[in-house]
Amino acid sequence: MKLVQFRAGDYEAVGLLEGGSVIDLSRAIDIQVMVHGWFSPVPPLADVGTISGLLELGTFDVSWVREVREFVKAHGLESELRLSVKDVTLLAPIARPTRIIALGLNYAAHAAEGGRKPPKEPIFFLKASTAVVGPDEPVVCPQNVGRIDHEVELAVVIAREGRRIPRAKAHEYIAGYTIMNDVTARDMQRRDMAASNPWFLSKSFDTFAPMGPCLVLPDEIQEPVELDLSLRVNGVTKQKSNTRQLIFKIPDLIHRFSKHITLLPGDVISTGTPDGISPIKPGDVMEAEVRGIGVLRNPVVAGK
Q1: Domain boundaries, the chain
Q2: How confident is the model at residue 39 (pLDDT cuts 50, 70, 90)?
Q3: Fewer Cβ atoms within 10 Å of its own Cβ: the N or the C terminal residue of the chain?
Q4: What is the pTM of this model?
Q5: pLDDT beyond 90 at 170
């Protein structure tokens, strides 16, 4: 199953993406509460209008998403709750993540293209949550910052709070998977690295974290996660690899991070980019693609 955050006019909700249509999951939950007086995973006054709100419940699970879908079918609500994808605007699945936990040099070929050796330990860093934009939203190139690069990545969204999570149980904490484009002010990052300074700012400009187009639940993507990923600029393929090339795999990342820091519902772990990074400029169109998730398209515009 694939969840989307969507907007139709002034209305925003969580939807279940099925081919060319979206089932309004938020309204389905509201109807289910009205019919039965309750819906066990969702307490009164819970935010069911956003994926983030559902994750904050701490009980997010594929099984109850499936339960809502079955309710829609059993009560003949499909025609009432189904919208065409053409009639809605898809938004970032998690508009303001609790944290964006990103990985540096997690593909050996990407480390090599930067003249560095593969790391022996994961290189974790943070991006600002305010950098997130959704599908088809523009990435803004700030003035006077030099080279800006694209970086296609598979991102993992955390479902529930966890500390010291064993590798074998990491899958129990995954809400789903999406695409992130870890846009980077490369010249600024290189100056910071040369000075042994953090590179938070170069990664965190507004619009530097396109995310989407959907959140694919773990019923469709299981370990070991081996997905083709690529990025095109103006139709020309710049990056192409497979997540089997990750140096540190997803269960290991969850285990290693949570060994020291508690993971929270809505945290996004962006697993690193393969080789092929290249500069972008205003007028370009980026298309980040991960098999089984879709295409995240974003135009590039000039900052004012």
Answers
A1: 2-91, 100-302
A2: low
A3: C
A4: 0.96
A5: yes
CATH top class, domain 2-91: mainly beta
CB-neighbour burial class of residue 130 (10 A; exposed 0-12, middle 13-18, buried 19+)? middle
Query: From residue 177, how far is each of 46, 102, 118, 282 by CA, in Å?
Result: 23, 14, 25, 29
Helix ranges (DSSP H) in the chain:
25-36, 51-56, 62-74, 78-81, 108-113, 186-194, 200-204, 250-258
Tell the burial category of 293 from Cβ atoms under 10 Å away from its Cβ (0-12, 13-18, 19+): buried
Determine which helix (DSSP H) or strand (DSSP E) holds 117, and give its type and residue range. Answer: none
Arithmetic mean of pLDDT, 41-64 = 84
pLDDT digits (tens, 9 = 90+) for 248-266: 999 999 999 999 999 999 9
Residues pairing with 29 in the sheet: none
Q: What is the reported pLDDT for 41?
A: 65
**Which backbone phi and psi does 135 adopt, to 5 degrees?**
-55, 140
CATH for the stretch 100-302:
3.90.850.10
Q: How confident is the model at residue 46 (pLDDT cuts 50, 70, 90)?
A: confident
Q: Count of residues for the chain?
A: 304
Task: Name the more confident of 48 and 299.
Answer: 299
Q: Which two tokens stand for residue 88?
A: 């809605």
CA-based nearest residue to 278, from 234, 233, 242, 243: 233
User: Dihedral angle at the C-alpha atoms of 137, 147, 201, 104, nearest 10 degrees?
Assistant: 90
Extract the tokens encoding 202. 């170069």
Q: Which of 15, 8, 10, 11 has its CA nearest to residue 212? A: 15
Chain segment 197-208, per-residue pLDDT in tens: 999 999 999 999
* CA-based nearest residue to 302, from 286, 277, 289, 283: 283
